[in-house]
Write a structure and sequence with these properties.
81% of the residues lie in helices and 0% in strands. The protein is mostly helical and 57 residues long. Helix 1 runs antiparallel to helix 2.
Length: 57
Amino acid sequence: MTDSREAAVISEALGVIDKALREMLQRELVSTGEVADLLLDVRSLLTASATTSTPEA
């Protein structure tokens, strides 16, 4: 069950990246704030996955 959760989170993170890249490629300039927001979104998804998949003692 953990593997499917991790796969779903990775898939969602890739979706966030792909969407942002499509939007950014259509523009000449991208602000550092937008890049930071993207990285924070991806980090949040991956952190949530790591937290839920860590075995409890």
